[in-house]
Amino acid sequence: MKPDFRRSFPAAAAIIAFIAAGALVRVWGLGDYFLSPDEATIMAIARKSTLAGVFKGTLVQAHPPFHFFLMHFWPGPGNNIMWLRMSSIIPGLLFIPAAYLLGKKAVGPAAAWTMALFAAFAHAPLTMSQVIRPYALLGLFISAAMWFWIDYFERPRPRTAAVYAACALAALLFHYSGGLFIAGAGAAGAALLLARRRPLREFSFWAAAQLPAAAATIALYHLHLARIPGLHREWINGYLISGFGAGGTGLPDRFSILLVFFFLRQTATIMPMLVALGAASLVMCRRWPTMVLTGFMIASAIAFNLAGAYPLYGLRHSYWLFPTMALLLSAPFELLRRGKPSDSFRLTWPIATGLTLSASALAGLCLHYDFPRTLPLTAVAEFPISRRTFDRTITWIEKNTRPEDLIVTTVQSADLFRFPLPEDTGRVLGPSLSVVSTAGRDFYYEPLLLNYVEVGQLEGVIREALAFNKPRPEAAVIVLNLGYENRALALALDQFCEGRIAPVRRVDFGFFLIQSMPVEAVIKALEP
What is the largest CA-CA distance in the chain? Predict the structure, then answer.
């Protein structure tokens, strides 16, 4: 029996409308924003002249090196920010049909359109597909892996298992949270085989499908993670500490914050109820493989969190859970057609037109409010600096500092200053001191520290910079930061100056902090 292609036209048209609306929302106005500090650091590492240099640069980041390799080879003009962001926009748009197919496979056709709606307009996928980060690729590969996982347990075939293994491996290579997905999916598969009382041969085959990811995990840990300085002190027990709680007492709050990041704060009060309803819907729809898979995904997130190995909170690091939570929230819509055969849900042209108009209306709202780039958390974390703001900052520095001043900055600020330059004007002065030159100024920084959150770190880089280039007595020592962590730096500066340095001039507004101190007072304060 030949397929009736006329029946697929409305669905294809609606999906194309979703992709077009999603593309418009992602691209419109994005060119007004400069790089975030994290994006600048990613590009500074990716622009190293050799792959060995790129790999070495990733040792200051708790992320696998493969996204940096991708950006190293990304074609086109290196300073075109919009084109660089296409490395996330493209997989972010592919995530829309992938989410649709996953919803259709895992739950049903009604849930599929809900998944497509989430993929196109929900806060997390919309944000993660506009920034130079690996999360859009992570979501795409995890969605594909989930599709092939479900397909394998519906019709076990070696080819399906191989494609699942490849997608899961790709997710791990682009972000370490892919390992949590692999752990959950592997355990879910074993549990399903056990529940079905399958022979030992099938257990062995499923275990073999996990070997590529297991081998990659071991290799990445020894070659990369274990070599990151201060992995536990500065990352797990430092930057990521807010994602851990005291035992299991904080898990409901962390899941609630996670749902706020995935969707919207306005829906936070009803989201936990909808997730519970989604789990019940999977049972009522008898979607046992999907129920087992989503259950083990959540169990994996909780287990790693309670073990203190990976955070669980409302930031991009938990994006690997988005396909799972979106499936649970989509499942209740399948109850609308419960008891009807799958082919009874035919997407007619009137329904397709309604979906297209809905996508257009949502796109219009997003464009009107510049959603989600103007939301407070998103603005601070992903879009803190516009192009106009960056240009005005450079002008301000030129007018309010002198070439003879000694300017100390952070590595991410240096990366921001370096990015627009036609060639890298940075120099390595020593193991813990580098300098970048722009706007007629030299900016000294410690390349292995993202920021100076302790007074000892700040004193160390100032001392080394003074030893390399001591300014004249009438000049100033200036500490400057552009972007993140101004509060932490301000605290370190207060501790450094307290009772020892005066007068001090500070400018601090949101994304920008600069403090000027007399040279002689700084030198005296650094004396043992």
Answer: 89
Q: Are residues 81 and 190 in the same domain?
A: yes
Encode pLDDT of 23-81 as tens digits.
999 999 999 999 999 999 999 999 988 999 999 999 888 899 999 999 999 987 667 99
CA distance 190 to 178: 18
Of 23, 44, 30, the closest CA to residue 85 belongs to: 30
Among 469, 475, 461, 459, CA closest to 437? 469
Are 482 and 456 contained in the same domain? Answer: yes
Q: Are 27 and 125 within one domain?
A: yes
User: How much helix, strand and coil, in percent to the nearest 5, is found in the chain?
Assistant: 65, 5, 25
Count of Cβ atoms closer than 10 Å to residue 89 Cβ:
21
For residue 477, give the DSSP letter.
E
Residue 238 is given by DSSP the state I
| Size of the chain, expressed as the number of residues it contains | 528
Q: Do residues 411 and 402 make contact, with C-beta atoms less than 8 angstroms apart?
A: no
Q: What value does the mean pLDDT take over residues 116-121? A: 94
507 and 364 share one domain: no
Structure tokens at 283: 């049972």
Residue 96 lies in a domain: yes
Domain span at residue 130 reads 5-335+347-380
Cα angle vertex 152, ends 262, 259, to 5°?
10
**Per-residue confidence band for 343, with pLDDT thresholds at 50, 70 and 90:** very low
Paired tokens of 314? 């409302």
SS3 state at 523: helix
| pLDDT above 70 coverage of the chain, percent | 91
Q: Shortest CA distance to 226 belongs to which of 217, 237, 214?
A: 217
Same domain (yes/no): 436, 310: no
Query: What CATH number is associated with residue 403?
Result: 3.40.50
